[in-house]
Amino acid sequence: MSAERVPVRFYQVGSFAVGNRLVSADRRNAQSDPQRANSLTSGHRACAGCGEALGARYALDAATRVTNGQLVAVNATGCLEVFSTPYPETSWQLPWLHSLFANSPSVATGVAAGLRSLGKSEVRVVAQGGDGGTADIGMGALSGMFERNDDVLYICYDNEAYMNTGVQRSSATPGAARTATTDVVGEHPGNVFGTGKFVPAIAMAHEIPYVATASVADLFDLETKVERAMSMHGARYLHILVPCPLGWGSASSDTIRLSRLAEETGLFPVFEAENGELTGSRTIRHRVPVEEYLRLQRRFSHLFTREGEVKDVATVARIQAIADRNIRRYRLSEEVS
Amino acid sequence: MSDDRPFAITLPVGSSLANKTGNWRVERPVYVERQPPCTTVCPASEDVQRWLFHAEEGDYESAWRVIMEKNPLPAVMGRACFHPCEGSCNRAQLDEAVGINAVERFLGDRALEAGWTVPVSASDSGRKILIIGSGPAGLSAAYFLRLDGHDVTIYESAALPGGMMRYGIPAYRLPRDVVDAEIARLVEMGVTIETEHSVEDAAIAMADGGFDAVFVAVGAQKGRHYDIPSGDASRVMDAVSMLRDFEAGDEPVLGRRVVVYGGGDTAMDAARSATRLGAREAIVVYRRTRDRMPAHDEEIADAMAEGVQMRWLTTIRSAQSDRVMVERMTLDDSGAAVGTGEFDELEADSLVLALGQDTDLGLLENVEGVERVDGTIVVDEHQRTGRRGFFAGGDAANIGANDRTLTGAIGQGRAAARAITAFLAGREPERDPELDPAGFDRVNPWYYSDADRTMRPRLEAARRRNTFAEVVSGLTVDDALFEARRCLSCGNCFECDNCFGVCPDNAVIKLGAGAGYQFNYDYCKGCGICVAECPCGAIDLVPEHR
Ligand SMILES: Cc1cc2nc3c(=O)[nH]c(=O)nc-3n(C[C@H](O)[C@H](O)[C@H](O)COP(=O)(O)OP(=O)(O)OC[C@H]3O[C@@H](n4cnc5c(N)ncnc54)[C@H](O)[C@@H]3O)c2cc1C
Ligand SMILES: Cc1ncc(C[n+]2csc(CCOP(=O)(O)OP(=O)(O)O)c2C)c(N)n1
Ligand code: SF4
Ligand SMILES: [Mg+2]
After folding, report:
1. Which site from A48, A314, B231, B525 is most exposed, i.e. has the minimal number of CB atoms within 10 Å?
2. For residues A160 and B4, which has the higher predicted lDDT (pLDDT)?
């Protein structure tokens, strides 16, 4: 996938770092450009180390670049909206609209229709929201947007809970995770297993032109996917994993490391699909057991002893089984593809 | 409400740039420069990483000029240095050490092909310096003193300059045209070398020539002898004399079977040279075990690959014209070799003693104030002897740290030059800046690409080429570029843009190629992502003081 990934031609940072003075400018990430759009500019009130703020800038800067700035963003309620726009300030450096928690897909559909009727079809529309806004309250609106194949790229910033209102469980919260509404009490502490939904798979079931997942740990991959999405028309869906230091109970400096571990364990499968079919997967580079990912987060601390040894072996094994299944299902390893 | 607002905009909008989130910070990131291990262990203090940086871009001339800031003989050192840098290289913890020595040789050879030289930009100081001995220590001092604008003269007793680079290290490891070319460059820079000028008394030579300072770099020329009962017809010689005679065109008569006594690099060179001089059999006899041999592993391996035989735990008791009597040894509890009383005979037409070298300090006998201990000159960390204006270095000045290598000699030559210039100016010499170490624990290995399988064989072939002088092609341009790019740049920014990219607050300012980055503390919240994601550990997080 990301078919153009530069083959490794030398050892020093290759194409993993943001830039690389040893490769030509067109091979560098958009984020390495001092003239990048900074769609989400400084002064926003996201927590230190917020993955959502980072993911939004990555994605919208890439989209701005490929559309030459002809871009409108529609935002659902959630951290991204709240931390960026406390009146009278805004951090957005592109036309940006907020209506409600549930309706950003419908609003975006309307914006796209309005632009079309004004004859401004060169202006493209992005809708964005958190996992709560996407998987839960906005699900109906989103499904409708998919089903009508409206010309919108919908981006979900998945931090696996309702962060803005104080870390309540969403249907994207993983099993065993502690949230304000899934306390670590009883026989099965934390969130229950076997519930929830994986929206990328739901999007694929709509057989829309393009569905992809990405994370803030692999910028090259993320930017390539935004570019690919913007090269198409119709309903497109991008699901980006964005660690939340506050909600996950992780060090603010670990945001990218956690995304990377989510990918390298297999817990967060990175792939892309067209018209409902898997077309590419990001293969795991150095596979790691899930406890290395879980151990760094307080929301999973009940699975470990104080010293960091696995305490709840059965639950960790269950999470490992999910990772293993993802690896098979989304072909995340060269051995299984 | 003014009317210049866009349609449907009811409230005036301000930018969040008004909100200086920097005041949330409890820790602040700062860019640092750290000392990579390759430099820390280099006896010549070469800035390996800094010259590899230029080589990575294919800017070989700049790379070479960085080497020349510390070492005037890159083509020589790219061949004969024992490269402790590679032994300490952090990359070894990822896959394999960077082939630093091979790249240095590549750069040194490029410079000779292209005729690059270093301009003397300092104006003439009007001071005259005498250097005694034209080995690496003397040549290095001469070079740096010339760059400081002094008038430099070397007195050398031998017919040709170079010291052990010419009369010790065999030509199959260090071709003489390379030595000649690098010395010629120094001569072109204005260094005067008077060969066949043996100094009998250093103080008189200094006074007679009107010199302001003298650097004694006479090396250690006398091969150590050891009292072995030997018959009249036996041929016993020391290794340095043998190698020197051979180089001077005076081929030593060794016979078909040669026994070399000793376990250092000189023993290996003597044995390997003996096979090249026609000996059918060369046997190295060493008192202790292989792991205790002072010779470098590569040298031992090469010698054995060439058919040199090793007799460990063996000592020589007597020598006859056609054989030597040896005793088998054993190591006692303290690790010392002791005899077992078991004797054996080895057929031998000659016996070569490689037991170390001593310095002939006759030229200092009547010079007051220059202290000597164990046959070497006592100097301080700036190569100063106890006598004003008298400096010494290289093999002749064996301060504890001096492990008697070319590289050590070059480092001491530079230190002496700096001290002499300071002395002439009436001030204390400066030191190289000391930086905190750049350990592997600071590296984020994720960002460095894995060894590509197709690349590996090439890499190993390149290594081999450098080790076996028979295949002396050195690195190709592609290999050199590739090898240089394997450097992790431990502890120092190499402009990968990661910090600039990963900041959720856009609080990193990119200053442009070569200028690095700056933090914008107005907005930096101190999350530390840049620190964690810096591939090479060039950012520290320090507590904020308010
Ligand atoms: C066989 C052998 C192999 C070696 N291989 C290596 C190697 O691979 N790598 C490495 O790093 N090191 C090696 N070494 C060690 C290295 O050669 C020495 O450490 C280094 O040459 C010391 O440099 P120097 O300038 O102090 O002395 P030298 O190189 O010995 O030079 C001293 C010079 O002073 C001259 N001189 C002496 N007395 C007088 C006088 N009274 N008047 C005028 N001139 C005088 C001598 O003729 C000589 O030219 C080897 C040594 C030997 C013997
Ligand atoms: C209809 C409605 N219900 C509830 C809320 C309160 N609310 C605001 S943001 C939010 C949670 C957002 O969670 P998510 O979509 O995951 O975004 P995050 O803050 O985690 O980025 C909630 C419940 C609301 N604004 N509107
Ligand atoms: S709560 Fe989480 S998502 Fe919200 S601003 Fe803080 S880190 Fe970002
Ligand atoms: Mg959320």
Report:
1. A314
2. A160
